[in-house]
Amino acid sequence: MLYLVRHGRPRIEPGLLPSAWELDPAGFDDVWALRESGRLPARARWFTSPEAKAIATAQLLTDADVAIVDGLREQVRDTGEWIDDFDETVRRAFAEPDLPAYDGWEPLAATRARVVAVARSLLDEHPGEDLVLVGHGTAWTVLAAELTGTPPDLERWRTMAFPDVIPVA
């Protein structure tokens, strides 16, 4: 089974690239609650995005070794500019995945290709084992859709908690 874990609540710092945001200590209790919830496997192989908020989330969720995998990073968003209608911008990314939805954003099709390739490789390397990938909402939305053969669930993306988990059979 594959478990896609969205990182805990980030400390949002306008002007700083989202990829550099840290985990907000005020949200640690939410991460610990997920750890104790029984929604994650007792034994698994753990992998995380290289972003600080994802690494910190993984470290709070498990005592196991966690491998950092560059390809699990979120959609590249090379702008620290505050986006007033972030939800609409992400919806545009899903509607036109081959185009950047905002100046400095990676096209969502590139994000999908990257995370799907990494996830399939990890699944092939660890057949029959539970895997936990700690990362990001947009990346996990496109990955879950690809692996299940369903359209991206934008409502689930919109309502996903910090942290949250999407089990994928």
From TrEMBL:
One Pfam family linked to the record: His_Phos_1
Stretches assigned to coiled coil: none
Domain of life: Bacteria
Record's protein name: Histidine phosphatase family protein
Organism (species): Nocardioides aquiterrae
Source organism phylogeny: Bacteria, Bacillati, Actinomycetota, Actinomycetes, Propionibacteriales
